[in-house]
Amino acid sequence: FARAVQARAPGVRVEWFHQGANKEARILSNSATVQHCLRFPKGWRTRWPELHAHLTTYRRQFRANRWHDAADVVTGIVEREVSGRGGKRLRGVRFL
């Protein structure tokens, strides 16, 4: 995933890390925190329709979902930034 991001956005700094925890358990246990703490910019539905579709149609039954990447990414953001895991926290993100 990190390679794909670097290839598409060479000006973005990507920090690699390994996530060895159970993906299903992480996504489900952090879902309320994600909904409470994560904010998207105005118009994100039209700017990133695929991301919007993946996040808003995600099912609790893990195998019912074809893709888990979007839910996994927002869960990782909450784990690192909101919950304070992983050291220094970001103050904000600017969307271009």
TrEMBL record:
This is Large subunit phage terminase. It comes from human gut metagenome.
